Amino acid sequence: MAEKKPYDDHVPFPAPGTLVLALMFLAVFIIFYILNWKWLSMVWEVK
């Protein structure tokens, strides 16, 4: 019979609530970063 490898019992990583909240915060931060550049470019006229 084949020898059992240590990675045969691999269980997928369950995403805890903390990770989900951190990723949501990161997404909101990126969205606001992009929007602020857009708003700034509309307000601040470079001549």
Task: Please give a handful of descriptors for the protein shown.
47 residues; mainly alpha; 0% strand
Low-pLDDT runs of 5+ residues are none
Q: What is the molecular shape?
A: rod-shaped
Number of strands: 0
Beta fraction of the residues? under 5%
Radius of gyration: 23 Å
Largest sheet: none
Secondary structure blueprint with pairings:
Blueprint: H1 17-43
Write a structural description.
With about 45 residues, this protein is mostly helical. It has one helix at about 15-45. The longest helix is centred in the middle third of the chain and has 27 residues, at about 15-45. The radius of gyration is 23 Å and the shape is rod-shaped. About 0% of the residues are buried. The mean pLDDT is about 85.
